[in-house]
Amino acid sequence: MEKEIVFATNNLHKLSEIRRIMGDQWHILSLADINCNEDIPETADTLQGNAELKARFVKERYGYDCFADDTGLLVDALDGAPGVYSARYAGPGHDSAANMALLLENLRGVTDRKAHFSTVIALIQGEEMLTFEGRVDGTITETPAGTDGFGYDPIFRPDGHEETFAQMSADQKNAISHRGRATAQLIQHLSTP
Ligand code: IMP
């Protein structure tokens, strides 16, 4: 029988990736599914802090055990920026195209293009909070390529691959991605009796 858990997001891209990664055994409810349409504050200055904030918010206000993720793209030559501020790198209300354009502008002429994605998943069950982290290393391309995925995917090429995440199928990305790796640990924990 399917087991049920809340994923504290209304980001449809993340939801679809997580549903695909977690497979048939899990029924993943989104925030909309539990009638939470609030903007959950992400005021911490670390990925772990924000993931925990989101999970705790849902548990305290809505009463559900749940998990939440926070993801950042950390660029070596920019001292780890945009990092925890990846969603609003080009300013509040800006979209992924603006964030990518600013990042490429800030890396113009820079030869060290090493970067990594990091995802922290916070799981709250009853009183207990656990976190799981996944990371993938790669490089920032000179120009965007590909139309799949979301966010910074068109300008991130994982090490050992010729394509950006946005040029890969969902399954190819999930097999090696930050979110795929963090979720694998979550699944292992949830599956351990
Ligand atoms: P957050 O985890 O929703 O705060 O996401 C931070 C930023 O990173 C947003 O701009 C997302 O679009 C972007 N982002 C999150 N996950 C991914 C991913 O898997 N690929 C590319 N960009 C991502």
Q: Could you describe the 3D structure shown?
A:
With 193 residues, the protein is α/β, with parallel strands linked by helices. The protein is built from five helices and seven strands, in the order E-H-E-H-E-E-H-E-E-E-H-H. It has helices at residues 12-22, 47-62, 96-106, 170-176, 178-191, and strands spanning 3-7, 26-29, 66-75, 82-83, 114-125, 128-140, 156-158. Strands 1, 2, 3, 4, 5, 6 and 7 form a seven-stranded mixed β-sheet that branches. The longest helix is centred in the first third of the chain and has 16 residues, at 47-62. The radius of gyration is 17 Å and the shape is globular. The protein starts with a strand and ends with a helix. The mean pLDDT is 95.
List strands and helices in order, with pairings.
Blueprint: E1 3-7, H1 12-22, E2 26-29, H2 47-62, E3 66-75, E4 82-83, H3 96-106, E5 114-125, E6 128-140, E7 156-158, H4 170-176, H5 178-191
Parallel strand pairs: 1-2, 1-3
Antiparallel strand pairs: 3-4, 3-5, 5-6, 6-7
Helix pairs in contact: 1-5, 4-5
The structure holds inosinic acid.
